[in-house]
Specification:
The chain is of the alpha/beta class and 145 residues long. The protein contains three helices and six strands. The protein folds into two domains: 48 residues, no CATH class; 95 residues, 3-Layer(bba) Sandwich (Glucose Oxidase, domain 1), CATH 3.50.30.
């Protein structure tokens, strides 16, 4: 099993307009408290996350309705490190995916942003799925829903 999750930190990059990461000490042993406890405030679009259907479709299922089994298991990893900006259907068609793909991970250069000093502004060429790209993946993986 490979965990592809990113760490969460107050200085991490967040999508434009989304809330930043706030981490605040709530209780501290050094102050006489029984335990060290912190409070974390983030937006649901922070770091490594899954966009549930409700993220884009009003009234669609929220993340608590996405079965965990859908997120764990064998996956096809496609190299899109050259992608800049929204990833459309044409870029996905060029991947030569096998007929049956149960889970698809897209490897982009975005990962490098997390390993470098944090940019002041969100990069305009951040690789992300366009609505057409998302539809193409749904069409391609329709047998696996």
């Amino acid at each position: 099993m490979i965990d592809v999750s990113l760490g969460i930190a107050p200085d991490m990059l967040v999508w434009p307009g989304n809330p930043g990461v706030e981490l605040e000490a709530n209780q501290r042993i050094a102050n006489g408290d029984e335990a060290n406890v912190s409070e974390l405030r983030i937006g649901t679009h922070t770091g490594t996350h899954v966009d549930p259907p409700a993220h884009f479709v009003e009234g669609a299922p929220a993340i608590d309705r996405v079965p965990l089994e859908a997120l764990i298991g064998p996956a096809t990893v496609s190299d899109l490190r050259s992608a800049r900006g929204p990833i459309g259907a044409a870029a996905l068609d060029g991947l030569g995916l096998a007929e049956r793909v149960e889970r698809l991970l897209l490897r982009t250069d975005n990962s490098e942003l997390w390993r470098s000093p944090r940019p002041i502004e969100f990069p305009g060429d951040y690789a992300c799925l366009s609505p057409e790209g998302a539809r193409r993946i749904v069409e391609h993986c329709a047998d696996h829903r």
